[in-house]
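debug: dumping io for the single-chain case to check the tokenizer round-trip. Nothing else runs in this session.
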Amino acid sequence: MTAARDLVRAHLDHPALLDRIADTDDLVEAGVNSGELIRVALACEERLGRPLGDEELADLTSVQAVADLLQAPADAVREGV
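debug: decoded output
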């Protein structure tokens, strides 16, 4: 979860906002704006080395969702998928 929190924090206009957001809180409801979410999505794409699909983009609603997205490729490699 630390990597996901660090990624989100790095792309917020006011990084201290993340200190008040739980991992499962909705980012938009907590005050994260659309531009910040776009930067988070672009950072996820860079980290994964591929563009995100529409569903993946729509699912980026919390720090937990970012962590799940970033973890998914590692799980697939371990499982031989």
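debug: round-trip ok. Helices lie at 2-10, 34-48, 54-58, 63-79.
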